[in-house]
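Here is an idea for our session: we take a single protein and study its fold together. To get us started, please write out a protein record for me. Start from the sequence, derive the backbone structure tokens from it, and show both lines together. Go ahead whenever you are ready, and we will take it from there:
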Amino acid sequence: MQGDSVHAGPVRVLLLSADFQTTRLIDELLRATWSRTQLLAHAEWDAAAAQALVDHPSCCVLLDASAGPREEAMELLAYVRQSGPNAPILLLCDGDDEALALEGLKAGAQDCLPKSELEAGLLRRALTHAIERKRSEAGLAHQALHDQLTGLPNRALFLDRLGVALERARRSQSQLAVMFLDFDNFKQINDTRGHAVGDRLLAAVAERLSTLLRPMDTVARFGGDEFTFLFEELTSEREVVLIADRICHAASPPIEIDGVALSVTVSVGIAMVTDPAVSAETVIREADAAMYRAKERGRSRYELFDEESRQRAGARIELEHALVQFASWLASRPDIRLSLSLSSRQLRDPSLASALRDAIRAADVDPGTICLEVPEGAVGEDPEAVTATLRTLKATGVSLALAGFGSGAASLSRMRELPIDAIKIDESFVKALGRSDEDASIVGTLVELGHALGLAVVADGVQTAAQLEQLRELGCDAAQGDLTGPAVTGEQAEALLVEEVAQVDVA
């Protein structure tokens, strides 16, 4: 086969045929076609045949499908593909069996050759085409499962390997861990140096990270400047912590691109898998939550997922669920609005704004239909940090309300700096309405203050018609509480929306 680069080395063909005449004929044709040919002939698919495919994974398989029922041939084809997923397969059939050929191609064979047409040139061409088709398929499969910039596995392949690793851990009770890595200052590099330089920097760091792993480990580009790692057969938590420390240090030294030394720092989150029954998505979510905790504490840091991280991850899931549900309500009632209460702990989560933005995008809802309620007490705990967080949240397009207003935690000067749209008068003031003129005067002052700041004013905890009427007289913009409707579950709220109830509090 002169000039043919397909078979620069020895040609190995695994023949599965119980027909001695077919075996002898193919042996003669192969020897006439290629001088360096090794025919591995087996009368049936047994342990020896399977081992031959394991020992020579690049050999081409000739499967004689002419004898016996078609179902048996397709079953044999499935066994061969399972044992040698990279081996090209050529079916041998009786006559022009078009139905068998089509079924075989759908089942994973590369071609089908009639035994009546067997001759040296045709066999050589059929084998060559089968090998080339398999190589093309393998190339396409590699592109689909690998990142083109770094050559690393992509998100889909990483999730697949993680799923397999979790299954192995269930059987062997071994330890595994997942890391989630994110660059701290990559956007700045993209903005100042350009995306082409950013891509080259990513590729260089990816090559660095790959050198730190054992052959059994996996590093993948999960998306953008995010990388994930899978570590199996760990002996202790300390082992993966040491690896994380090496990863953080390995990413730090400057990398020279076009004569400019560029430096990056990373944040790494670690999720140790203690329950192999957990889903791959949950492990990724836990590592991601730990990564944001590391980012909060400082650059080039790593954090193990803990109970606080678990609570934050749970809060994000609740947020996503509340917005998928809200989206379904909007489809039938586009006039409704959603209010979500945030806790002081959630406001301390540096990933809150990005999680909110992702949840809004996933639910495909208008952020202008969402109001986030922030407890006034949180402002007093850390005014500067809360103000910065609120500005980031405001940038997502949602509106903001200060709940529990009047408790005295937020100073007037601080109130002017908060990027809020409304205040909710604390229910303790509303419940006192009707008992004295002084109580009414306090609520009136709060209403006037809110309006003076250009904010809408909502009264919380309205229980009687008399309270509602007095709030109207005081100029309050809106009210909520048991009078307009008790707190209900999501399912109950959906039923009420069907009945076209104007306003409810959703528990």
User: Anything to note?
Assistant: Residues 120-145 form the longest helix (26 residues). The chain is about 50% helix and 20% strand.
